[in-house]
Design brief:
- Four copies of one chain form a homotetramer.
- Chain A is α+β, with helices and mostly antiparallel strands and 309 residues long.
- Helix content of chain A is 47%, strand content 10%.
- In chain A, a hairpin with a 4-residue loop joins β6 and β7.
- In chain A, α8 packs across α9.
- Chain A is globular.
- Chains in contact: A-B, A-D, B-C, C-D.
- Chain B binds chain C through residues 99-101, 104-105, 167-168, 170-175, 177-178, 186, and chain C through 99-101, 104-105, 167-168, 170-175, 177-178, 186.
């Protein structure tokens, strides 16, 4: 079954939108505070280039943690699977995304997976290039190709705001540096990482990237293989086991698709073989996921039988 | 692609068997120590009733942790989703299966998921019946229907051996009792749980049960719905996110199918829509999974494109 | 400087008594709930047999955690220092008294010290005797000698109430059993331990026992060495480093004497070379210490220069 | 009882020196690696100015963690007790000195005590002054007064070596900064802290400072009150409850005096009312304490009845 009309989608959005009142906009990054708590938009991107959307899909969002998946894809392409997983684990965790405690009690001390901050920092560290600028440029180009939007960039205000307040990530980085998982200057890595998190796009772009993952790495229109098949598969696996912070298990049961959320309120989803999803709803639940976005995906999963399981 | 002949399967088994030398038979349950470390067998069960096998598939194994999935299915059928997940979480964890620490630091103090021991004990506690005998009888009957083997029972020696040595599970139970997650006599629950873990079958039985899950709960021959669709789906989701102890993440990436292992060396797998898998290889890796069994599944996943992701 | 009159002491009690309103009577042991929240009494016992008191010192209290020090003294006399500290550590901990998490992460898995529940259970396990009855009888006789009160016994209602509700201690015991730190039947040890915790006396008895510790193990009147010098010293050391749950550090700074509290609201103190203290004030602060008792000791420590430091 | 002659002391040193072979020189700070593993020296400083010593007491050592006590004294004098303990706790901990995990699980997130690195960094942060230079100058002047050695300074090589390698402390600082316990530039604090740790003196200086603490803050010769009485008392309390890393509990039992060790192999001890102790023996046990130094103190404690308990 699939979504047949914009009206159908709009109705689901209207139903899900009620949940925005139960959430809160992220406030630990100053620049995110100004988001409109009530908004909810969605785009679906199909292999043939068709696209349905509802809500104000022209609103931009910053990727935040969604960028972890894209950086992982690029790092795997840059370094290979073995190199990456020698330095970052593959196991889900019941701990919060910004936890440092497990780093200390694990032997050897490596981040449990690339979707928690510690692991994501180690992954971003692996992106190749001679300078922060070059590495960031390579990442942006990669994301432009995935989204088909050649003009996308990053939000300087958000990046600067994060750079100034991201002391917990600095703490994680120095811990990783002590344990030889990263070896570059921490401020450089912070610069690169906060820019990565601040890459900006709208739901349509996000849905198109989701569609690339849904198609095992192929461009939905040109059918060019933008990401190697096995890399796309690895990314989707992490999206299932740990894409939704420490609500990933529940999401896998209730929705059952590879998806990655960010504290900006974005969610990128990939329904294998079928279509990509981009959602923006900045009101978050206590785990840091878009509260209305998750409700919307639950309704859609039931209505259109999206679950892989 | 699918396995075309017993010879093809036998060849894979021969290749995977080399890995048995790198593992160790479980020794913390005295009755498991006598297993033949070198053995490896596999059965594949298809919806039409076809079955391929290799190795000595008549050897019996006890289910151990594999039983956690079956008890979960029954508890969900007995109590409903809401009741069960009010008492046991749905999140994967990076901690070992027998850990108690996370119980203490979580608020509220509920087991993270039904695949770790604390969660499995809470689930078994939920199986309905007026006595341990009746509850166990209900579970055995349920498993007989899933396997189509009406004569299967449990191994009394293994059950007794586990009952005597399972003090860590008693510790978990009293912790759960203190926190009102269970409220029955602990020795009764230990009796039921150790019997459940000691239910005995061979790889063919295991593969047929796997096939029921692969078919969303339907009997592969009669097509009767033995497990409600949504319950089968929930079970498969947990098999993906936490079925292989704290190697589940890596397994999802390298193999990519719902599977559950036990320290007896058994693995039950379900390739969605396609077939069920039963494996027995008692030599374990350090995480507690059949070392040759996992290698065999990796080879098969690659050769037959089994990954869901 | 020392307390010169009952009036002086009464005045301090009156001042400290105001703090009872900020505390709460322990409610997790049903039989403790009925204590009079507002009461506060104190006795000081001097080497010459002199005794000052204020408040209703005839009220009985059960020892609860105060008994941990006395059981430790007996276990050290029964088994020797090496045996005891091979099985229980000597280090203070920032964790709550009933924590199990540190047991799991410590290697080898031994309780951090004899003042947390896990350690106290291991210590009580070491008390010699052929049966629970004999071991308890030996402990009671020992405490009768220390207090000079030959008629003291235990409160059956409290013991039974604790026995029924002490599942967290059962959890700790099975954990210790799994790790071979205890090897007796858990229900037997629970029987012994809950009786030990329920030994009953009044402030005068408690002050006299405190005086024995203050005098390095000597009876304050007969001067008989009731506890070997080195055992008394070890006990006082633990009272300083971990006698007041996880407020021990602050207590050492603000009061600075060896003391042990219990959730009944009792505190036993020993001012080295000078006198013993018995306090009963059942309103507890959030750490589980008598809130008015601690205020009273702070005032006394300042007024009479009691700190060892 | 007290040490009567240098010969007596020399004999004890000779006996204790055998233990140096069981230890290892700290190697995580490059500049400490070159210490002579076999050396052991001690000085005792008495209130009358008398001083006994044995071994090569002219050898210099850097204070390392011993400096934590001195910085605490100055911060308490600068800020007052309430300010300091609003930001740093007073409780001992069973965790290693450089642990970050407890910071995360504690609510509110404040370091458990001033003797673990997280707490010491917060304390050093509190030392008053308009610049790192001024704050360090104030600390050095304070220590010169305590030691009576007006020429002591810091070891630039060690400071630089630590500054370069102290990424774990940087990690702790950023964690503290995120939680608003410190608010200065981390590199500045690292500069100040590594200089503080690298303050250099010999055993005689160390013994004289120990004597100041033994005399409740008074200069042993001029009797001037260099540290307020209550500040000296607080420092001695922490030395007892957490002065010897996570071997403090055992040390309190076996030796029983306020003492603080550093990974350079130094130990500063204070026998209340009697004398100060300075020890240098760079071979460390696995907890990070001078292995021969501790044996020497055990012998002395027994021979001269030093224990406070």
């Amino acid at each position: 079954m699939q979504c047949r009309s914009v009206n159908e989608l709009q109705k689901l959005v209207d139903d899900a939108k009620k949940y925005t009142s139960t959430g809160k906009v992220a406030d630990y990054i100053p620049a995110l505070k100004n988001a409109n708590k009530d908004s909810l938009s969605i785009a679906l991107f199909y292999p043939n280039g068709n696209c349905y959307s509802a809500g104000d899909v022209t609103e931009n969002l910053t990727l935040q943690s969604i960028s972890k998946v894209l950086a992982l894809a690029l790092a795997l392409m840059d370094r290979g699977q073995e190199y990456v997983f020698d330095r970052v684990g593959q196991e889900p965790t019941g701990d919060p995304f910004n936890s440092i405690a497990k780093l200390e009690t694990s032997v050897p001390s490596k981040p449990l997976n690339p979707m928690i901050n510690a692991g994501a920092l180690a992954v971003t560290h692996m992106i190749k290039g001679d300078s922060v600028e070059e590495r960031f440029e390579r990442l942006v180009k990669f994301i432009r190709r995935l989204s088909g939007n050649i003009s996308l960039g990053y939000n300087k205000d958000v990046a600067m705001s994060e750079f100034k307040t991201t002391d917990l990530n600095r703490s994680l980085c120095y811990f990783l540096k002590q344990h030889h998982i990263i070896n570059e200057d921490v401020e450089q890595l912070m610069d690169l990482y906060t820019k990565q998190c601040s890459i900006e796009m709208n739901c349509l772009d996000l849905a198109r990237i989701g569609c690339v993952f849904a198609l095992d790495g192929k461009d939905p229109i040109s059918e060019e293989q933008l990401i190697p098949h096995h890399v796309a598969r690895i990314c989707k696996t992490f999206m299932v086991t740990c894409g939704m912070y420490n609500a990933s298990g529940e999401f896998a049961i209730k929705v059952g698709i590879p998806a990655k959320s960010g504290v900006s309120g974005g969610i990128m989803g990939a329904v294998p073989g079928r279509f990509g999803i981009g959602i923006y709803g900045p009101a978050l639940d206590e785990k840091g996921n878009s509260v209305a976005g998750i409700e919307l995906l639950k309704m859609m999963s039931e209505k259109y039988s999206l679950s892989m399981f």
